[in-house]
Structure formats: structure tokens, C-alpha cells
């Protein structure tokens, strides 16, 4: 992919000048200025200036070029770099959500009553942990809200600012529109930003990956947010339903003294309804599995401190610590159902007996009515007493069974809520590690959302793309140019948390190839295993995504060519070659083919990122739009000398010089070196 050294005359000029002129070629290759952008304004589709786009992009810098193709046509290339309000608005939304989430967790564990001392101590740990994070995040949010202007940009010089910890560094949308004669423009885009990492806490002890491996507590059981929510629902049920059951049972005993079959049946129906709701709520796999986990943990802590979860169970520590029978819970709630069946069966027998008694004791017209009335009064009193006596032990059994089920279910669901809170807080390690994780996520989220919104808005009229989102989700391909030496290894460890997605699935892959002098040191004297592991894992994830896309949407454009690219990527990953940037080129090509989100970063998204983005743009022009091979290097130098990325450098450091030295550049791959006079 070398552009070659021989460069002929490049016919590139201002839009309003078509003929050759005597201006030196290096001045004619690239041009900037509002007049040029204004001239191009009307060639851009209306939706580029829509409210949606203005909400995502701001402070645009525009460069326009004309390049010659192999068949002597003129390509009109519009390069556009934009800031985004999402740099600050999304971190503020995330901070608000985190504050609300932790406040809700505090409220949830505070609502758990009657905990034994051991578990109450754990609850106190959760509350203290959450309150600390709430205080830190509220302070950060207040600082962001109090900024005097509405910022869209955090410069590389402020990447270590404490209160800008959640804000991505130097986040921009880099877009290129290519228009060939007689055709409409084609857009390509890359999101550029400083490596999502916590520069405020720095990297003395490594990045997230290393810190989590040191401090994260390994728990034998953990519960998701959905399971914790379900547990709280069940706690409400076991609090509300037993009083209703007990009330119906008391009423049953009361009406048993009445000789009113209709009223008795009404109370029985109510008792049956409430008890069945109770049984249905308890017949839940979450209760069963939580009881097993709870008793297992009770056995592990028995002897060190009280294993009882609830104070009322503290006297039963020895009982809880014994080997737990997993079928015990099924028997517990089944006993409730059986005791209800016994009551219903007894009520039926009593009513049937009463019915037969009434038939036998019907007064005969030939008999004395006085004697009959006397006998009936005596039998009625005896019958009422008999009903209460026979129903009472069954009602007591029902109460006992319900109480036992409530006790076990309440302990199990309290365990789920508390264990879920512990897993999400204290078990994650010290608060600073959780803050680091949230800050890294915030930076990456802002970049991905920016790219996603641009992708979706550009594909609203593309049914294949919308079907792809629905069926397999969208690929987010992170390209990193970090070395595996010193603090940049810590940054790469921070980035390695960026792999999960849900709802509209975001399949994240990260490919890193260090290209600077520090990577040379790492390859010769250090360790680049982190880079190898990250690239290998991402290659597997990318392969799985492509296979899913091929299986579910086999007719999508570009899918059939993915097999060859996957094979090429596998070969590149297997080759033991220093600074094998071909891995990045192939992965980037695949991302474009599957309509993915391309993201590129280095330490500050300023110098190495500029080399990568401009190279990618020129490769696209050559491979997709037949940019003349003899003009490739000139176009590359043109974009680096006078293009949008040089404007980015000046915006960040106030100088139009890339932060490279001539000695450092000797270690760079050839195509990642800027033209003379643009560095120092």
C-alpha cells in the first residue's frame, strides 16, 4: 500500500479556477477558507444542514480538494471536521443517571429490615460506598453545569482535569464526501478522540484491566438488575399477601358459626384466591436458586459470625448452616397448597354433613313440633361448635405453612437485593476504580453515540441497514495507535472494558497497533502480549459478527466479500511482524463494508490519529474512487499539511506542528510519517 515516491503534477485547484496556473503545486493541492466552503454549500444534501445534524455536529472546519483519477477525471473531495455537543451533554446525562442509580440502591438496601449484625454491616458498607460516589458525581456534575459557556470540545491539554474526567478528549467527527463527475457524493466518516482513559488518576498502578484483577472481589454468586427488581417485587408480595390470607382464615372461623352455606362459600373463595396468588408468587426459580446460594454462603461464614440473614432467623444458625436440600423450597410452598386443600375438603365435608342432617331432621307433620324444635336447637349449637373445632387446627396449619414460606422467601429475596447491591458496588473494588470505570465508559459512550447517530441518520432511507440494526446490531470498531509501553499500556487496559452492548446491540471490537518509538522499545525489550491478546480477541468477535450478518442477512451489500477479508485479517494477526499496521487497514475496511462505526484514537487524538485518518482517507480514494497512484503521496501530504487535522493540532496546542521529532519518525511506518516542515 505504498504510495510511491514519484509524483507528477497534481491538477488540484480552487473550485472557481479550472485552468492551470503558475501557483506552486504545494499551494494548489489544498485550500481552506469560508468562501470555498460557501461555494460548496449548495452541493450538499439538505439533510446535512438539518436540525438533527446541527444537534450532533458544531464548529465545523471544511477543506475542499480536486484530485485526478487514473482515467483523468476530477474527484471533488470535501473534508469536514466537526466538534459535537455530545462531548459534554452525554457525560452530564450519564452522571445524572449514575447519581439516581446509586441513590435508588441506597433506598433499596435501607428498606431491608431486621437484618442480622453481619448482614447489617454489609448493608452499611453498600450505603457508605454509594453515598461516596453520589457525592463525587454530584460535585463533577455541578462543575460541568456551571461552565460559563456551552462547550463542545475538551483540548488535549486538559485531559487530566479532575472535573473533566468524564468528558472525552479532543472528540471530533472526521467526514469526507467524495463526488465524481456525474454522480452524487459518497460520505465516509471516522470518529476521532483521545484514548478513553482516566488521565486524572494516571497509570502508576496500571489501567482498569490490571486494577480490576487486583482488587475486584470474586463472588460465587451475583444478580442482575432485573433479578434484583424481581426480588423487590417478591418482597412486596410476601409482605402484602399473608395478612390477607390470615384475615380470610379468621373470617372463615367466624362464619363457621353461622348456618349460611352461601356466606361460607364466599369466604372460602376469597381464601383460595389470596392463597393461590401467594403460591404463584413463591413458585419462582429465583427464590429457589437464591435459597441454595444463601445456604451455601451461610455454611461458608458459619463459625466466623452469625450466618442468619434476618434477625428472626439468628437462632437458627445451625439449621441454616447444614447441607441444604434444593427440593426443600418446593416442599415449603407445596405445603401451603396442601393445607389449603385440606381446609377446602373439610369445608365440603362439613357442608355435606350439614345438608344430610337437615334432611334427616326435617319435621314430620305427624310429629310434635315442640320436640322437634328443641332437638334442632341442640343439634345446631353442637354443629356450629363442631365446625370451628374441626377447621381450627387446619387454619393453624395453613398459618404456620405460610409463615414458614414467608420467612424463607423473605430471606432469599433480601439476599438477592443485598448481594446484588454488593456485587454492583463494594465487590467492584475501591471507589476510585469504579469512578475510573465510569469515566472511561463515559468517554467511549460519547464517541460511540456520536458515530451511531450519524450512521443512523445517514441510513434512515436504507432498509437493509435498518434491518441490520434490528437483526445483528451495529459494529463499533475502535482503532488504537497506543504503544504497549509505560502509561500508554495503562490507557490500552482502560480501553479494554469497551466490549459489551445491549438493546440495539453494539458489537465492539478494538484493534491496537503501536506505531511510535515507545512501541519499538516494547517490542525489543518489553512485552506486547496485551496488544496481541486484544487483537486476537477482537478478531474472533469480528468474525462472529460477520458470520451472524451473513447468516441472517445474506443478501446485504458487501457481505459476500467478507470471507476473503476475514482470511486476510487472520493471516495478518498470525504474522509476527513489528508494527503490523495492515491489521488496522483490513479491520477498517471491514468496518466500512458492514456499515459500522469507525473510531480512531491515540493518546490525545492529535498527532498519530492525524496520520491514521489522513492515510485512511487517501486509501479510500485510491481503492474506491481510483485516485491516481502517482498522486497518492501528494494527496496524503496535502491533507496532512493543510487539511482539517492540522487545524485540529492548532486548536489543541496553538501551533501548526505535529509533535514528532525527526528521530522519532525514523521508527514510524513509512505511510504514517508527515511531510517535511510539519513537525518538530
UniProtKB/TrEMBL annotation:
One Gene Ontology cellular component:
cytoplasm
Which residues are listed as membrane-spanning? none
Q: What would be the name of the gene that encodes this protein?
A: Nfu_g_1_019167
Tell me the segments the record calls region Disordered: 357-385
Q: Specify the species.
A: Nothobranchius furzeri (Turquoise killifish)
Q: Does the keyword Secreted apply?
A: no
Q: Please identify the protein, giving its name as recorded.
A: Inositol polyphosphate-4-phosphatase, type II
GO molecular function terms noted in the UniProt entry: phosphatidylinositol-3,4-bisphosphate 4-phosphatase activity
Upper taxonomic classification of the species?
A: Eukaryota, Metazoa, Chordata, Craniata, Vertebrata
Against InterPro entries, the record matches this protein to: INPP4
Q: Which UniProt keywords apply?
A: Hydrolase, Lipid metabolism
Is Lyase set as a keyword in this record?
no
Gene3D superfamilies xref list: 6.10.250.230
Renumbered to this chain, the Polar residues biased-composition regions fall at 363-378
Amino acid at each position: 500500500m505504498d504510495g510511491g515516491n514519484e509524483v507528477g503534477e497534481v491538477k488540484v485547484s480552487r473550485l472557481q479556477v479550472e485552468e492551470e496556473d503558475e501557483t506552486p503545486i504545494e499551494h494548489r493541492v489544498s485550500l481552506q477558507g469560508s468562501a470555498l466552503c460557501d461555494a460548496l454549500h449548495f452541493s450538499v444534501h439538505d439533510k446535512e444542514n438539518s436540525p438533527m445534524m446541527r444537534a450532533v455536529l458544531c464548529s465545523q472546519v471544511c477543506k475542499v480538494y480536486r484530485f485526478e483519477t487514473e482515467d483523468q477525471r476530477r474527484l471533488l473531495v470535501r473534508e469536514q471536521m466537526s466538534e459535537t455537543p455530545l462531548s459534554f451533554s452525554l457525560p452530564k446525562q450519564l452522571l445524572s443517571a449514575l447519581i439516581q442509580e446509586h441513590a435508588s440502591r441506597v433506598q433499596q438496601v435501607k428498606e431491608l429490615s431486621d437484618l442480622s449484625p453481619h448482614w447489617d454491616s454489609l448493608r452499611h458498607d453498600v450505603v457508605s460506598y454509594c453515598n461516596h460516589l453520589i457525592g463525587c458525581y454530584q460535585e463533577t456534575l455541578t462543575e460541568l453545569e456551571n461552565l460559563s459557556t456551552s462547550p463542545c470540545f475538551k483540548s488535549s491539554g486538559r485531559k487530566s482535569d479532575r472535573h473533566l474526567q468524564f468528558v472525552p478528549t479532543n472528540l471530533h467527527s472526521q467526514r469526507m464526501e467524495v463526488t465524481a463527475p456525474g454522480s452524487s457524493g459518497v460520505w465516509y466518516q471516522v470518529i476521532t478522540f483521545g484514548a478513553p482513559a482516566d488521565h486524572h488518576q494516571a497509570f502508576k498502578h496500571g489501567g482498569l484491566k490490571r486494577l480490576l484483577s487486583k482488587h475486584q472481589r470474586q463472588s460465587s454468586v451475583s444478580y442482575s438488575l432485573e433479578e434484583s427488581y424481581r426480588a423487590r417485587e417478591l418482597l412486596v408480595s410476601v409482605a402484602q399477601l399473608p395478612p390477607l390470607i390470615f384475615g380470610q382464615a379468621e373470617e372463615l372461623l367466624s362464619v363457621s358459626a353461622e348456618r349460611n352455606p352461601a356466606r361460607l362459600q364466599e369466604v372460602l373463595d376469597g381464601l383460595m384466591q389470596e392463597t393461590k396468588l401467594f403460591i404463584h408468587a413463591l413458585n419462582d426459580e429465583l427464590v429457589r436458586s437464591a435459597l441454595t446460594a444463601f445456604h451455601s454462603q451461610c455454611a461458608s461464614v458459619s463459625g466466623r459470625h452469625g450466618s442468619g440473614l434476618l434477625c428472626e432467623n439468628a437462632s437458627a444458625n445451625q439449621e441454616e448452616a447444614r447441607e441444604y436440600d434444593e427440593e426443600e423450597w418446593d416442599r415449603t410452598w407445596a405445603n401451603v397448597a396442601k393445607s389449603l386443600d385440606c381446609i377446602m375438603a373439610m369445608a365440603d365435608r362439613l357442608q355435606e354433613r350439614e345438608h344430610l342432617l337437615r334432611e334427616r331432621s326435617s319435621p314430620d307433620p305427624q310429629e310434635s313440633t315442640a320436640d322437634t324444635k328443641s332437638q334442632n336447637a341442640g343439634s345446631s349449637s353442637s354443629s356450629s361448635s363442631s365446625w370451628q373445632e374441626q377447621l381450627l387446627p387446619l387454619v393453624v396449619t395453613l398459618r404456620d405453612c405460610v409463615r414458614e414460606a414467608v420467612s424463607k422467601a423473605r430471606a432469599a429475596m433480601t439476599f438477592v437485593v443485598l448481594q446484588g447491591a454488593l456485587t454492583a458496588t463494594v465487590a467492584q473494588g475501591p471507589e476510585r476504580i469504579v469512578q475510573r470505570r465510569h469515566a472511561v465508559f463515559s468517554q467511549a459512550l460519547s464517541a460511540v453515540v456520536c458515530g451511531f447517530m450519524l450512521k443512523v441518520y445517514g441510513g434512515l432511507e436504507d432498509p437493509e441497514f435498518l434491518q441490520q440494526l434490528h437483526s445483528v446490531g451495529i459494529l463499533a470498531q475502535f482503532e488504537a495507535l497506543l504503544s504497549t509501553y509505560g502509561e500508554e499500556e495503562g490507557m490500552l487496559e482502560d480501553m479494554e472494558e469497551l466490549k459489551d452492548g445491549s438493546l440495539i446491540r453494539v458489537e465492539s471490537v478494538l484493534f491496537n497497533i503501536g506505531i511510535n518509538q515507545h512501541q519499538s522499545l516494547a517490542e525489543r525489550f518489553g512485552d506486547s502480549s496485551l496488544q496481541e491478546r486484544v487483537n486476537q480477541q477482537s478478531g474472533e468477535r469480528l468474525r462472529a459478527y460477520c458470520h451472524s450478518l451473513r447468516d441472517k442477512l445474506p443478501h446485504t451489500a458487501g457481505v459476500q466479500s467478507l470471507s476473503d477479508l476475514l482470511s486476510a485479517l487472520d493471516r495478518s494477526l498470525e504474522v509476527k511482524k513489528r508494527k503490523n499496521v495492515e491489521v488496522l487497514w483490513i479491520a477498517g475496511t471491514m468496518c466500512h463494508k458492514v456499515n459500522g462505526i469507525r473510531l480512531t484514537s491515540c493518546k490525545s487524538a492529535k498527532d498519530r490519529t492525524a496520520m491514521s485518518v489522513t492515510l485512511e482517507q487517501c486509501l479510500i480514494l485510491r481503492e474506491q474512487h481510483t485516485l491516481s497512484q502517482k498522486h497518492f503521496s501528494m494527496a496524503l501530504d496535502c491533507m496532512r499539511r493543510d487539511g482539517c487535522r492540522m487545524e485540529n493540532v492548532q486548536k489543541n496546542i496553538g501551533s501548526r506542528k505535529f509533535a514528532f521529532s525527526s528521530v522519532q519518525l525514523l521508527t514510524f511506518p513509512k505511510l504514517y510519517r508527515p511531510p517535511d516542515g510539519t513537525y518538530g
